[in-house]
Specification:
Strand order of the largest sheet: 1-2-3-4-5-6-7-8
Bound molecules: zinc ion
Structural class: alpha/beta
Number of domains: 1
Largest sheet: 8 strands, parallel
Number of helices: 9
Distance between the termini: 16 Å
CATH superfamily: Metal-dependent hydrolases
CATH architecture: Alpha-Beta Barrel
Shape: globular
CATH topology: TIM Barrel
Low-confidence stretches: none
Helix content: 40-55%
Radius of gyration: 17 Å
Mean pLDDT: 95
């Protein structure tokens, strides 16, 4: 049995002191592979430093996170696009739209999202997509790529059943993390509706720790807690959850 953490920011400043111990705890918990999304040009050397240290376990993506879209986004995209040829890179992310906080960058976010989706189309790379409080905007842009063969994960899925059905039809699966362990969350119904074959497990470390670690720094070793919750939802074994969700991520990211 092994697990995959399909979305984790292990390389960031949050793990400067103890990354080795964090990775060891993940391996002890049978989380043998983790996908590391990129958020901006400034932290890219941290990302590749971590991947260089654990090439068997950490798999990087390249992308400009929507909340990192600034007035300089075109220069950032130029720089990031050049990183796509690095042999370690397995996909594009995290990219998308985030209008949770008021922002003047709506048009720039849309343009950055569109340009990066075009990379994915051209290079046939899978995606890790971040959508927060922006489903109508994000779907409008994704629809321009209908029939282009895009695939990937809608990370930290926060939409409703309609968005979930649309995502599946489009070729995406849903990233499910700590939120599924919180009390009174609607995500459990969505997980049940889409089925195990359409979900990936993720921590989104250092954020969104599952219950009972809510509020603390998250890490990939917490994946089995999320897996157990998913197993309870389907009334199946954690081994089966590990097997199916790992195969989903391995298929999409070819790792
Ligand atoms: Zn993320």
């Amino acid at each position: 049995m092994h697990f995959i953490d399909s979305h984790t920011h292990l390389y960031k400043e949050y793990y400067e002191e103890d990354l080795d111990a964090v990775i060891q705890r993940a391996l002890d918990a049978k989380v043998t592979k983790s996908i590391l999304p990129c958020v901006n040009a400034q932290t890219i050397s941290d990302l590749f430093d971590a991947v260089g240290k654990y090439p068997q376990h950490l798999f990087p993506l390249i992308g400009l996170h929507p909340t990192d879209v600034t007035k300089n986004y075109l220069a950032d995209l130029d720089f990031l696009e050049k990183q796509l040829s690095r042999p370690e890179v397995v996909g594009i992310g995290e990219i998308g739209m985030d209008l949770y906080h008021e922002t003047e960058m709506v048009e720039q976010q849309k343009d950055a999202f569109y340009r990066q989706l075009a990379w994915a189309k051209e290079l046939r790379l899978p995606l890790s997509i971040h959508i927060r409080s922006a489903y109508p905007h994000a779907l409008e842009i994704l629809k321009k790529f209908t029939g282009c063969g895009l695939t990937g994960i809608l990370h930290c899925f926060s939409g409703g059943i309609q968005e979930a059905e649309w995502a599946l039809k489009f070729g995406f699966i849903l990233g499910i993390g700590g939120v599924v362990t919180f009390k009174n969350n609607k995500l459990q119904d969505i997980v049940k509706a889409v089925g195990l074959e359409n979900i990936a497990l993720e921590t989104d470390s250092p954020f969104l720790s599952p219950t009972p670690y809510r509020g603390q720094r998250n890490e990939s070793a917490n994946i089995p807690i999320i897996a157990q919750k998913v197993a309870d939802i389907f009334e199946t074994s954690i081994e089966r959850v590990a097997e199916v969700t790992s195969a989903n991520v391995e298929r999409i990211f070819r790792i």
